[in-house]
Structure formats: structure tokens, C-alpha cells
Amino acid sequence: MARTQWYKEMAVYQIWPRSFCDGNGDGIGDLWGVLSKLDYIKSLGVDAIWFSPLYPSPNADFGYDISDYKNIHPDYGDLELFQQVLEGAHARGLKVFMDLVVNHSSDEHPWFLESKKGKDNPFHDYYIWRPGKTVRGKRKPPNNWTSLFEGGAWEYDEGLDEYYLHLFAKKQPDLNMANPKVRREVKDILRFWLDLGVDGFREDVVTFIAKAEGLPDSFPPIPMANGMKYYSNLPAVHDYLREFKREVLDAYDCFTVGESPMTTPETALGYVTEGEEQVLDEMIGFSHMEADCLATDMIRRPFSLRKMKKAFSDWQQKLQGKAWPALYIENHDHPRIISRYGSEKYRVESGKMLAAMYLLQRGTPFIYQGQEIGMTNLRLPQVEQYPDVMTRNNVRLLSKFLPKKQVLRAVQEGARDNARTPVQWSAEPNAGFTTGTPWFTVNENYTTINAAAQEEDPNSLLNFYRRLLRFRKEHPVAIWGDYVELLPEDKHLYVYERNYAGSKLLVICSFTDEQIRFQAPTGIELSEKALVFANYEWNFVISNGFTTRPYELRVYLFETQTAENSEFGIRNSELKGNETDVPPTPETFVGDGALDVPPIPFASVGDGALDVPQDNSEFGIRNAELEDGETPSPSVGDDAPDVPLTPDASVGDGAPDVPPIPETLVGDGAPAVPLTPDASVGEGLAPPADPHEAPASPAPAEEDPSTRPEGFAQDDSAPPTPASEEDAP
Ligand code: GLC
Ligand code: CA
What we know:
- The chain is an alpha/beta fold.
- An 8-stranded parallel β-sheet has the order 11-10-9-3-2-1-15-14.
- Helix 11 (347-359) packs parallel to helix 15.
- Residues 562-729 have low confidence and may be disordered.
- It binds alpha-D-glucopyranose and calcium ion.
């Protein structure tokens, strides 16, 4: 656990290694590629990298099925190379977090191979093996649970005449955390990486690691994830996490963030409330990612801004003064956000709006690779071209209810493969991701959407992200301010304030291409001078409001002090008229003292992070006072139809109790998304000259070498050679 509050000021960049950058030309991203991009990552203004699994894995779930917890997948490099990356990151002031995946391992992990050998094998109890039931003379699994990824949750083993539990794919058997030997292994894994110099962990589906005594049947049965109430957020999860904390994590100044599907803020608070009982620094919730779907991304629904706002505000408000939120709008498990909550037509505008919308909330922002350049969903013409195990399962399930065309559309819009296309570095062949043949399709839009082009453009999304991250670091209100939502009922605008020690940040986000009149509330006077971010030029204010352009964003900063507005170089002390309305120092700061302590300068501030232009380049021009044609239009009472509200599966105990048959998808007659075959699939493209820098040698390490154990490469559990292909996707 982090000993001080450094993680509250940080921003994290997530790398899904297979698609980040290929350094050796085999078409698969790797740690050579990461080394070559450390300066780029640093230039964003983030403070840490979280690596999705880098470990040896048969890739049934692309790394989330681990066959050796103390090594690096040969596709990505080896432990020595990892150490170079770690040193290179540390030398740049970047921390490094690993993905801890201990709800399950791979079925090719030596533990599992041993556990299968016999009921008296010492590893047998590392997993959850049970005899089947006999129902009317027929052999049945031990209970009626269904997995999240692949049919029933039990797989039969003939040799043992027993079933093993897998909440995810068949090749991801669940570990038996109730076994103290398994917990000892987990503590060993934690120590191994911490002693190597790693700074913390993102803990995969950590709320699932305890299963209910007796593994009872679950009713009413549902086709996917049936039984969740018996394995989600059980009291024993707290016991296990407390043990990991006391016996290992407390000895290191490390950061932990848990992943918790279907978890409410109330439940999350049980883990992350600051104080004696805290077992994790932060928790990753899901509800804000369910505003255009029903429990899973693949069951599509029309986007509901109110649903999204409700989810964000729920977490913001309930954690305020008690715990520190984790903020994200993209990761490797969800389609690209612009294609979902924003607009591909207004890609840059909506990308900027979405960025500010979540980065300026209270919490630690996570940014997923490619998000910062506004990558979008892929549209492949065949469902078979999507390799993910979860996508395939969803295709199988949806095909029972929906015509082929609609299944394809659900995949194109909802598959997490959308976030797993190679990062678009440049307009070179294969987007500069590889000199070889990429393992997965490069989105054909790379010629226009790529990092190199955006480096050159001061108004690019990439540079906007840099400015936002820098602003956050330079303005305590953006980190420590209390969150207050305005206009919660509005169907088009998301508006919130942050307040801290006499500063007020006002964030106004339009989620529509329609013109909507925004009227500032009494007590706030919009002024050109207070504007710190916008995604259009010319930001007029008329009668203390404005009419929005598509996906418009405006962020205003009001300060009573004579602080400098660094984004524009304008002094806010000139602000007239509303000084007295600026709220006093927020109570949570003055009062409880437990949480929002005054900011401690973060180690990486001012350490040579890329210099972002100080001028008002966001707009190029100063915003004029007045515009002739702008007429106020009411934003209240518009008659846009409300999105029908169906029971939200994320409320309550976690088990969705409605069968996931999407009414909006069934027979809605909406035209299928136009099929755009991806030109970059397959061969036919000449290899590029050499779009990669040679793997850079890392900058000299500054950290204390004594934190590194000797013989770190010695791992007695030899990595098994993947033998069985039978279940490979
Ligand atoms: C988490 C991961 C996801 C993985 C699953 C099973 O949700 O983020 O990618 O498939 O756990 O490990
Ligand atoms: Ca490679």
C-alpha cells in the first residue's frame, strides 16, 4: 500500500503490450518497443505505466492466462529487458505497475498440470476441483454456474473424474484462494516483483477471488456469469487482501488498484475507505462504462448521458472525503470511447471533450494506449476476424437470439478487440507499429489518425491531453477539489464543478451535435478570461451563457487569489463581479483532515517533462465578447426521447437477474454498419524502410540498486512449454 498520497496526484498510462509497439519486427508488440517509446510516454505528462500482463502465457486470453508468474513472455523479451524498461522508466520519473492475475492461472501453469495428476497430488487443492452430480443417471457439473467467457463454469477431467471451476475461459482455471499455500504463492509473486523494483499492482478481478462455501446453485439461471452472487465481493476477499497487505505490501511504498466488475461504490468503499480497514488504494468500477449497453458491451443500447452522469457522480460523491477514485474511459476491455460516447464525425472535438470530462474529476486518471490520439473502433466484415475469447463467446450467445447482421454489428460496436488494434504511431505502413506483419488488423484510418501527425499539430488531441495533464498537475483544484454536479437531469450536457481553497473549476461538456443553450448558474459569471480549455475557437458568452456547438467543451477556472492561469497566461485576478460567490474552502478539506491533505509536491513535477507551449494555442485567438447571431435556446424541457431504462445489472448484489436479451437489438431494423474491409489486413504491403528507432538504451538509473535482489532471474518454477492447442481460439 502506498505510504503517502503520491498516487493521488499521478496519472497512469496503460500498455497492452501485444499492440503497443513492435521492436523486433515479428508483428507483436514487445518491451524493445516500449523502451523506444519511454520518452513519448513521459512527454504525455503521466507519472506511471501499468502493464497489462507481460508474463508467459498460452494467450487464450492474451496474457490474462498466466503460465509463469515470475517471468516475461518470450514474445515480449525477458527479465533482463524488463529490468531495463523498469530502470528507463524510473530514470524518467515514471513508476511501473504490473497486472496481478491471481483469480485464475493458465491451465498450462505447472501448478495446474500437477493438480490434474491425482487427488492426492500436493497441488490438487491449488484449484477448485469437485465431483459431478448424477441427475437421472446422467453426469452433471457440481453446480449451475456459467462462465463469463465460455459456456458452463465447470470442465470435466476424465482422469480424475472431477470438474474444475473456471469463471472465465476453460483455459483459465480458478485458483483456490482458500488454500493457504495458494496465498503463500501470491505473496511470493508480490514480493518477487516488488523486490525487482516494481511500484505496485493492478489486481485483476480481485473481487472474485473468494467463492461461497458449498458453491451453491444460483437461481434464476442466466446464460452468462450465473452464480456471480456466490463469488463476487464475499467477506473472505477482505481477509485475503488484508493478509497480502499486512504480510507484504505494507513493507513497500507501493500502489494497488483492484478491478471490480459489477461493484457499487458502497461495496468498493469496503475496500478503499482510508483508515484501518483499507486493503486497496483504489478500485476500478464499471458502471460508467455501461451507459450504452446492458451489463456487457456487446449488448448494445442507445447511449444515455444521464446514465453515464449518474454513474460518475455516484462514485464521485460517495467516495468524496473517504476514498480516492480511479478514473478511466478506455482500457483493453472496452471499445474505443469516441466511437461510443463521442462521435467519429466530430472525432477531435468529442475526443477533447471526453478527455476533459473525466480527467478533471477527482481521482487518479488512467489513459489507455491510443486513447490520447483518438483511435476509434475497427469495422471488420466477419465476426470470425475478431480473435478475442470473450467476443467469440458473445457471438455464440447472441447468435441464439439475433440475426447474423445484428450479431456482426454488436461485435463491431461492442467487442473489446476494438481497443486492441496496433497503436497508430505514424502514416508509415502498418501505422509504424511493426516492420513485419501485424498480429492483428491495423485500423485503416491510421493514415489520418496517428501520433506523428499529431505531434506536429498544436491543436491535436495528443497535445490537448498533454495540456490537460499538465494543468491538472499545476492546479490543486483539479486534483483536490470537491466534485459537485450541476444540471443532473439534462440529457445533453454534463456540467460539474470542482471547488478547492477558493478556486472553482467549471466543466461544461456537450454530448450532442445539437445546439443547446447553457446558462451559468447564479453566482458564476462566465468570462473569456476565466476560460482555460475549449475545443473550438471563439468562445463567446452571451447573457452569461452560450449555445453549444457539436460536442463542445468549455472549462472555466475562477480564483479568488491572484494565481496565474498557465494555460493562457492570463491573470485571473482581473475577474470581476463574482468574487464573493466563490465558495469557501470545501468542508471535506477543512474538516475531516483524513483524506484531502494539501498537495505534497509530486516527485516528477518539474523534472524535465516536455514543455507544452504556454500561449493560448488552444484557440489561436482571443475569445471575443460577443457574437451577433447567437440566440439563447432553452436547454430544459427539450423533447429528445428518453432512453428506456431497463434494470441496471450493476445495482444490487451484482448478479444481473434479467436474461440479457436486448430488446433494442431485436428486430430494430437499424441498418448494419457499413462494412469497410480493412486494406491493411494481410500481405501486399511493402515493408517500411525502418519506422522504428533502434531500441533506445535506457537513461542511467537513479534508483537505489540495493532495492534489487540478487538472482532475480532465478525462478524455480520452470515455464512449461505450451503443449495443448485444443482450446486455443
Ligand atoms: C479482467 C481483465 C480482462 C480479462 C479478465 C480475465 O477483466 O481486464 O482482460 O479477460 O479479467 O482475466
Ligand atoms: Ca515483437
